[in-house]
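Project outcomes to date are best conveyed with an example. Our students and postdoctoral researchers have been running inverse folding experiments weekly, and each run begins with a structure described purely in tokens. The record below, which covers 450 residues, was selected by the lab manager from last quarter's runs and is presented without edits.
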């Protein structure tokens, strides 16, 4: 063997040895990290998920139904037996989803989720507003006043801005420090609009969310809808966060439109529904097909709809258990924070609040820093709505409740689910005081509630 060939041999052996060493040390580090080195006390596959308002995992029964339904490949619009079978299953799911909110199956339109449902309502209003007269029940044509709240989800906020660009006037109702909309101002706006002789100043639509995704505050939708109706306006509520967590009954609420989404109730992502009361105006956002009576074109996502149906069935069945379980643990978390961490602010309404939601401001600590430190401890939370986090803007919801930008930046949303355990809550209660104390030590901003 020549000398250079020998060198090459030694070199390649060394390289192989180095790779093995590298792999071994990497796996050693990862094991260390998982077993308590870099991520103390929790293994990575046992993370604590407290971000159920962002999305829920698929329930195991829903997952089974979903996997099973994937076999139903036929186009539900096809006239042959395969197609008719899928169509029948879709109608079954529709009936279950309708019964979850006490609607008629014919009043449910399947969409891709909450965002599309909300956009569909606002899009319909653009058509109504631009029409001089309409043949519909209350002749909404030409009215151009839209009322919403200042704490809506971004998909409603953006739709409201879009409808403004189309020539409507939008009033954004303020909320009090607990997130309840200002009913007096609402009444004044409705009254002034209706009293106007100019048709374009009259109220067309009110859209107010049933429960807020960040602070969990629940509005009195029944009262707000009845006020809208007494001034001949339509009423829409985004109930994405309410459905499956608290009772939702479209008849009792008296709403004309209601939005729901499967992935917040242990169903799949990319599927949702819009409830449209019989006789209320509705226009397709997506055109070009006869599906959903021409109101939402596109080949049916049969498996997702069937899984949504199963999720709705479970949500009806578990509603009471969900409320009791999450409320108990949420209160334990809240009371634990109050007793263990000085100078915090609990956001949202103390009673009119989702049972699973707790939003807390920790002055003197950055929300993103808290999130990252919790993340390293194996705990998943959110600093606001999942869609809004990623931007450095303070939460518009907290700002609307009068929390200043500094406090808003130091806020964390904990949202619990059916699988949350007492041990998980106690672990968070153990970690959180240390994290906040550490961050406050390095902070240049005050850790006192003003
Ligand atoms: N409305 C609210 C209150 C929400 O919390 C969300 C999602 O976070 C949406 C609408 C959007 O729903 P989807 O993700 O199904 O589009």
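After processing, the design step wrote out the following sequence:
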């Amino acid at each position: 063997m020549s000398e250079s060939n020998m060198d090459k041999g030694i070199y390649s052996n060394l390289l192989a040895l180095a790779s093995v060493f590298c792999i071994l040390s990497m796996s050693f580090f990862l094991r260390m990290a998982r077993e308590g080195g870099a991520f103390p006390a929790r293994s990575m596959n046992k993370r604590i998920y407290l971000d159920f308002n962002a999305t829920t995992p698929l329930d195991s029964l829903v997952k089974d139904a979903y996997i099973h339904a994937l076999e139903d490949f036929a186009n539900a619009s096809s006239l042959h037996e395969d197609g008719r079978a899928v169509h029948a299953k879709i109608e079954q799911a529709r009936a279950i989803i309708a019964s979850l909110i006490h609607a008629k199956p014919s009043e449910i339109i399947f969409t891709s989720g909450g965002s599309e449902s909300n956009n569909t309502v606002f899009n319909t209003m653009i058509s109504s507003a631009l029409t001089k007269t309409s043949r519909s029940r209350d002749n909404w044509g030409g009215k151009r006043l839209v009322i919403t709240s200042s704490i809506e989800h971004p998909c409603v906020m953006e739709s409201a801005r879009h409808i403004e660009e189309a020539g409507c006037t939008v009033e954004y109702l303020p909320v009090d420090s607990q997130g309840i909309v200002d009913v007096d101002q609402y009444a004044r706006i409705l009254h002034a609009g209706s009293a106007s002789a100019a048709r374009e100043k009259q109220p067309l639509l009110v859209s107010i969310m049933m429960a807020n995704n960040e602070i969990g505050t629940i509005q009195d939708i029944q009262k707000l809808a009845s006020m809208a109706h007494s001034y001949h306006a339509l009423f829409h509520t985004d109930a994405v966060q309410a459905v499956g967590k608290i009772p939702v009954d479209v008849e009792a609420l008296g709403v004309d439109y209601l939005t729901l989404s499967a992935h917040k109730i242990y169903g799949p992502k990319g599927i949702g529904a819009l409830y449209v009361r019989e006789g209320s105006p509705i226009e397709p956002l997506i055109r070009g097909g006869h599906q959903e009576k021409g109101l939402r074109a596109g080949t049916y996502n049969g498996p997702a709809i069937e899984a949504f149906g199963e999720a709705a069935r479970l949500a009806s069945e578990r509603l009471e258990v969900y409320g009791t379980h999450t409320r108990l643990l949420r209160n334990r978390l809240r009371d634990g924070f109050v007793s263990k961490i000085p100078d915090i602010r609990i956001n949202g309404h103390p009673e009119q609040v989702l049972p699973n939601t707790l939003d807390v401001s920790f002055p003197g600590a950055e929300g993103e820093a808290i999130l990252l430190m919790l993340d390293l401890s194996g705990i998943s939370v959110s600093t606001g709505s999942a869609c809004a986090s990623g931007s450095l803007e303070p939460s518009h919801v907290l700002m609307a409740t009068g929390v200043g930008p500094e406090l808003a930046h130091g806020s964390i949303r904990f949202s619990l689910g059916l699988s949350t355990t007492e041990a998980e809550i106690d672990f968070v209660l153990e970690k959180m005081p240390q994290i906040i104390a550490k961050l406050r030590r390095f902070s240049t901003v005050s850790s006192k509630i003003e």
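The pocket of pyridoxal-5'-phosphate is lined by residues 113-115, 153, 155, 209, 213, 238, 240-241, 261, 263, 272, 385 (CB under 6 Å). Residues 302-340 form the longest helix (39 residues). The training component of this project remains on track.
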